[in-house]
């Protein structure tokens, strides 16, 4: 089985700008820079045949490249407990356009639609038992004006997530270029996802 998601990877320069934000709170499991990304669509577990269909559908997406800027810091909470700390993304119509293209491509591969509203972000930390550090409010206020350098987005990526006791490892299966004309996807694993490894 393949646990898949589609995302925009971040350049090293932006990852370096995020690094100073990752610290100063107890109880936080900070994300490694290697797994930071902007999720376009979490897919979940599929078999090899569906993974192949997804790859082919994504490879047919034709969308323009664009520029992004990360900005602001916020959190997700449930039942009054903060479980995720994240950095947001400045308004970017072409990012929304790409997300819609990805959604349509996945529907053609019989992947169920995502019911949740799309809120692009980069996860910084997760809290197993909620954020109970008394400095959390001060941390949010101190970093609320964070703004990254603008960076170009010239591709998007199909990732396979491997779960383990030490956390998730994300394997890049295929990368798809963004531009105005026709193009072929660049396969990072030496072949289509379904044949990259045994299912």
UniProtKB/TrEMBL annotation:
The reply on keyword Hydrolase is: yes
Q: Where is this motif: HXTX 2?
A: 121-124
Name the chemical reaction catalysed here: a 3'-end 2',3'-cyclophospho-ribonucleotide-RNA + H2O = a 3'-end 2'-phospho-ribonucleotide-RNA + H(+)
Its EC number(s): 3.1.4.58
Q: What class of enzyme is it?
A: hydrolase
Q: Which GO terms describe its molecular function?
A: 2',3'-cyclic-nucleotide 3'-phosphodiesterase activity; RNA 2',3'-cyclic 3'-phosphodiesterase activity
Q: Which Pfam families match?
A: 2_5_RNA_ligase2
Residue interval(s) of motif HXTX 1? 37-40
The catalytic site is made up of 37, 121
Gene3D superfamilies cross-referenced by the UniProt entry: Cyclic phosphodiesterase
Q: Does the keyword Transport apply?
A: no
UniProt keyword list: Hydrolase
Q: Which InterPro entries match?
A: Cyclic_Pdiesterase (IPR009097), RNA_CPDase (IPR004175)
Q: Which family does it belong to?
A: Belongs to the 2H phosphoesterase superfamily. ThpR family.
Say what the protein does: Hydrolyzes RNA 2',3'-cyclic phosphodiester to an RNA 2'-phosphomonoester.
This protein is called RNA 2',3'-cyclic phosphodiesterase
- Please name the source species: Candidatus Defluviicoccus seviourii
Gene (UniProt):
ligT
